[in-house]
Design brief:
Strands 1, 2, 3, 4, 5 and 6 form a 6-stranded mixed beta sheet that branches. About 55% of the residues lie in helices and about 20% in strands. Among the domains are: about 170 residues, Rossmann fold (3-Layer(aba) Sandwich); about 90 residues, PAS domain (Beta-Lactamase); about 70 residues; about 150 residues, Heat Shock Protein 90 (2-Layer Sandwich). The longest helix has about 55 residues. The chain binds flavin mononucleotide. Flavin mononucleotide binds next to α1, α2, β3 and β5.
Length: about 725
C-alpha cells in the first residue's frame, strides 16, 4: 500500500506517535510518505486557546503533498484539542483527493487515553474528525489515542505498542463491503452520541443532587437518587464496554431500549408531582431517539418494554388517576407504530443508498484496475507509444517513445498536433496528419529518425462502441535491426551471385564451342548430353540474373537508363525468341497492335525487355498445348497499356494476393514441375512502378490469366 501520514504536533507528542506508526507500517512492507502540517503562525497555548474559542479557524503553510488521491490510505495525526486541532482541520479542508480515501485517525492527549475516551473529549474529537472527513468523501476506518505526557500510556509503553499495532493491523485491512462498514459505523456513532448524552445527564443530575441537598431543596432522597443513578450508570457503563470492545454494538440499541423507558418509568415513582402526560411524551421521545438507529425492530422492542413499564407504573404510581391506560396505551402503540414505520422507510432508503455505494465503489475499483493495467502496458511496452485524445492533444507518451525522441513527458504532454509538428523532433507526424485530421484510419510508414534508428510508424484510431472516437494511437516500432539484417542478406546474395556469374559464363562459352564443333568433332550422342548441360547452365544464369536484379532493387541500386522508344517494336523480338516453343506447343498466338502509330515512351529498354519477356514466358509456359495466347497494345494520351492474356492454368484465388511477392509460385504450377524462380513477377512489378506505371491481373483457375501493365507516355 502507498500510505501518507499527515500530522500536526505542537510539542512533539503526536510527532513521536506518527514516527512509531510509520515504522510499524514500513515493517509491514508499505511505502510511507509523511506530511508535517505547519500552521502559518505557531501560537502559545493561550494563543491557540483564544483562536479556538473566538476565531475557530487558522491558516496553514501550503502542504508539500496537496493531492492525496494517489495514496491508498491516509493516517491523520492531531493533538487532542477537544475538537480536531485547528491546523489539521484546515489541512483536511484544503487538501485534494480525499474522496473514497480510507483514513486512520490518531491523536495524543495530556491525560490517560482511557480517561480521555470516558470524559468524552475523544468522542467529540472523533465525531468532529469523521464529520469533516465524511464531507470530503473519505471515511475513518480506525482510531487510536495515546498520552504524550504519561509514560505508562505513551507510544513506548506496552499499552502504546499494542494500540499502535492494532491500529496498523486495522488500517491495512481493506473494507470488504462499504454497506456493512457504514451500518456498523453509524451504529457506533449513534451509541457514542447516546453515551455522551448519558454521561452529561449523569454528571448534571449528580451536580443537581448535591446542590439541591446543600440548599435543602432536595427532590429525591439520596437513596432514591442513587437507585436511579445506579441504573443509569449501569446502562452507561454497558454502552461504554460495547463501544470499547466494538463486539456487542448490535445489542447497544436494545440495551438503550430497555434502560431509557425503565429510567423514565421509575423517576415519577419518586417524583410524585410529575404528571402523567409528560411521561407519555417522554416515552414517545425515547422512540424518536431509538429511531436514530434506523432499525424498526429496536423501536418495536422499546415499545414493548415501554408498555410493560407503563403497566408497572400504573399499578405502583400513587396518583394512578392521572394515567388513563385506555387512552395512553393506544397513543403509545400508535406513536410506536408510526415511528417504526418511518424508521423502516428510513432503513430501506439507507440500505439502498449503501448498496449503491458498494456498487459504485466496486465499479470504481474495476475502472481503476483497468486504468492501472492499461498504464502498465503502455509504460512497459517495447514499442514507443504516443496517445492522442479526440481533440488531437498528446495525452500520454511512454518511456520508450521518450527515448526515441530524446524528450521528457512533461515537455510534450498537453500539446496539440500542430504544436508538436512545429518542433523538429515530431515533424515526421506531419506526414500522418493534415488540416486537423489524421490522413488515413490505419497508416504505416518507415521513418529514419536518426542515423542508426529506423522506426516503423503506425497510426491506429481508438474507437469505443459507446463513446465513439476516443483518440489516436501512434505506435513506433524499432526496425533498425531488421533493416540491418535485410541489408546484410541482400549484400550476401548480390556478392554470391556476382561471384557465380563469371564461372557460369565461362562454362556457357566452352559448351557453346563444343556444340559448334570449334574444339573438334563431337559425336551426336555427345552433343545431346552437352546440349542438356548447356540448357541447365542457361537456367542457372537466368536465376543468377534474377537474384542480382532483386538484390539491386532492394539495395536501391537498380539504375534506369531512360531512352525514348516505341513499345510496339520492343514486343515483336521477344515474341520471335519464343517462336520455337510456341510452335512446339502448337499455341494460337496473336499480337494485336493498333493501326495508328502509338506515342513514344521513355523507358529503360533493357528492363522493359525483361518485363515483356517475363510475362510472355509465363503465358507460353503455363498454357497447355493447342490453346491461345494474345498480346495486345492499347494507346492513350497519357499512357500505353500492354495486355498479355493466356488460356492456361490460372492462379488459385487464395494465392492471388501474393503474386508479386518474392519467390511466389502458384500451387498448381508447382504440381506441374515446370521451371521458374518465382522472382520474375517481383522484378516486373518493381520495374513497372519505377517507371511510374501500374501492373495488375485477372485470373481464374483452369481458365487463364491476363496481365496488364501501363507505362506513361513521354511528355
Ligand atoms: C490550545 C490547546 C488546547 C488543548 N486542549 C486540550 C484538551 O482539551 N484536552 C486534552 O487532553 N489536551 C488538550 N491540549 C493538550 C494537547 O492536546 C496534548 O498535550 C497533546 O498530546 C499535545 O500534542 P503535541 O505534543 O503533538 O503537540 C490542548 C493544547 C492546546 C495547545
Amino acid at each position: 500500500m502507498k500510505i501518507l501520514i499527515a500530522y500536526y504536533s505542537k510539542t512533539g507528542g503526536t510527532e513521536k506517535v506518527a514516527g512509531a506508526i510509520k515504522k510499524e507500517l514500513e515493517g509491514k512492507g508499505h511505502a510511507v510518505d509523511v506530511e508535517k502540517v505547519k500552521p502559518a503562525k505557531e501560537h502559545s497555548f493561550w494563543g491557540w486557546f483564544f483562536i479556538r474559542l473566538f476565531r475557530g479557524e487558522c491558516n496553514i503553510q501550503p502542504p508539500k503533498i496537496q493531492d492525496v488521491s494517489e495514496y491508498d490510505l491516509v493516517c491523520l495525526g492531531t493533538p487532542n484539542w477537544t475538537r480536531l486541532s485547528l491546523p489539521v482541520a484546515r489541512y483536511l479542508r484544503q487538501v485534494k483527493g480525499l474522496k473514497y480515501k480510507n483514513i486512520g485517525f490518531f491523536a495524543t492527549t495530556t491525560l490517560l487515553p482511557d480517561v480521555e475516551w470516558y470524559i468524552l473529549s475523544m468522542y467529540l474529537l472523533d465525531l468532529t474528525a469523521s464529520r469533516i472527513i465524511e464531507k470530503r468523501g473519505g471515511r475513518i476506518i480506525a482510531s487510536v489515542i495515546l498520552s504524550s505526557f504519561f509514560k505508562r500510556w505513551n507510544f513506548t509503553s506496552e499499552y502504546g505498542k499494542r494500540a499502535i499495532k492494532n491500529f496498523c493491523d486495522k488500517v491495512e485491512t481493506p473494507i470488504k463491503s462499504l454497506k456493512d462498514y457504514f451500518l456498523k459505523q453509524k451504529e457506533i456513532e449513534s451509541i457514542r452520541f447516546l453515551v455522551i448524552l448519558f454521561s452529561i445527564f449523569l454528571l448534571l443530575s449528580f451536580l443537581g443532587q448535591i446542590i439541591s441537598s446543600i440548599t435543602a431543596n432536595q427532590v429525591l432522597t439520596w437513596s432514591e437518587y442513587l437507585f436511579l443513578f445506579v441504573i443509569g450508570f449501569f446502562s452507561y457503563f454497558s454502552l461504554l464496554t460495547i463501544l470499547e470492545g466494538k463486539t456487542w454494538v448490535f445489542w447497544g440499541k436494545y440495551l438503550i431500549g430497555i434502560s431509557l423507558p425503565i429510567l423514565l418509568t421509575l423517576t415519577p415513582l419518586f417524583l410524585a408531582f410529575v404528571q402523567g402526560k409528560p411521561i407519555i411524551l417522554g416515552y414517545i421521545l425515547i422512540f424518536v431517539l431509538i429511531s436514530f438507529f434506523r432499525d424498526p425492530k429496536a423501536v418495536i422492542f422499546t415499545g414493548a418494554v415501554t408498555v410493560l413499564s407503563y403497566g408497572y407504573l400504573f399499578f405502583n404510581y400513587p396518583f394512578s388517576e392521572v394515567l388513563q391506560p385506555t387512552l395512553d396505551i393506544p397513543f403509545l402503540l400508535l406513536g410506536m407504530g408510526m415511528i417504526s414505520f418511518i424508521t423502516q422507510k428510513l432503513q430501506k432508503h439507507y440500505i439502498n443508498s449503501l448498496e449503491a455505494q458498494d456498487e459504485i465503489e466496486a465499479a470504481r475499483k474495476r475502472a481503476e484496475e483497468e486504468k492501472d493495467k492499461t498504464l502498465t502496458i503502455i509504460t512497459n511496452f517495447a514499442d514507443g507509444l504516443l496517445v492522442f485524445n479526440s481533440e488531437n492533444k498528446l495525452v500520454r507518451i511512454n518511456p520508450q517513445a521518450e527515448k526515441f525522441f530524446n524528450t521528457k513527458n512533461q515537455k510534450v504532454i498537453g500539446k496539440t498536433m500542430p504544436e508538436l509538428v512545429s518542433s523538429s523532433k515530431f515533424k515526421f507526424l506531419a506526414g500522418f496528419f493534415k488540416k486537423d485530421k489524421w490522413i488515413k484510419k490505419v497508416f504505416r510508414k518507415e521513418l529514419n529518425l536518426k542515423k542508426k534508428l529506423t522506426l516503423e510508424v503506425s497510426t491506429v484510431p481508438m474507437v469505443s462502441g459507446e463513446a465513439g472516437k476516443l483518440g489516436t494511437l501512434v505506435i513506433l516500432h524499432d526496425i533498425t535491426r531488421e533493416k540491418r539484417i535485410e541489408k546484410m542478406k541482400t549484400e550476401f546474395v548480390s556478392l554470391t551471385a556476382h561471384q557465380l556469374k563469371g564461372p557460369l559464363s565461362g562454362i556457357k562459352w566452352t559448351l557453346r564451342m563444343f556444340l559448334d564443333d570449334e574444339l573438334g568433332k563431337v559425336t551426336p550422342e555427345q552433343k545431346k548430353f552437352l546440349g542438356k548441360t548447356y540448357q541447365a547452365n542457361e537456367k542457372m544464369i537466368a536465376l543468377i540474373n534474377d537474384l542480382l536484379n532483386v538484390a539491386m532493387i532492394e539495395e536501391g541500386k537498380y539504375v534506369y537508363k531512360p531512352v525514348s522508344t516505341d513499345l510496339g517494336s520492343m514486343i515483336q523480338p521477344q515474341i520471335d525468341s519464343l517462336r520455337e516453343e510456341i510452335k512446339r506447343k502448337k499455341l494460337k498466338f496473336e499480337f494485336k497492335k493498333p493501326v495508328a502509330k502509338l506515342p513514344q515512351v521513355t523507358v529503360d529498354a533493357e528492363k522493359i525487355d525483361l518485363v515483356i519477356q517475363n510475362l510472355l514466358e509465363n503465358a507460353v509456359r503455363y498454357t497447355p498445348s493447342g490453346k491461345e495466347v494474345t498480346v495486345s497494345l492499347k494507346g492513350g494520351i497519357k499512357e500505353i497499356e500492354v495486355t498479355v492474356a493466356d488460356t492456361g492454368v490460372g492462379i488459385p484465388r487464395y494465392q492471388q494476393k501474393r503474386v508479386f511477392t518474392k519467390f511466389f509460385r502458384g500451387a498448381n504450377v508447382m504440381r506441374m514441375e515446370t521451371e521458374g524462380t518465382g522472382l520474375g513477377l517481383f522484378i516486373t512489378k518493381n520495374i513497372i512502378e519505377a517507371h511510374g506505371g501500374k501492373i495488375w491481373f485477372e485470373s481464374e483457375e483452369n481458365k487463364g490469366t491476363t496481365f496488364h501493365f501501363t507505362l506513361p507516355v513521354k511528355k
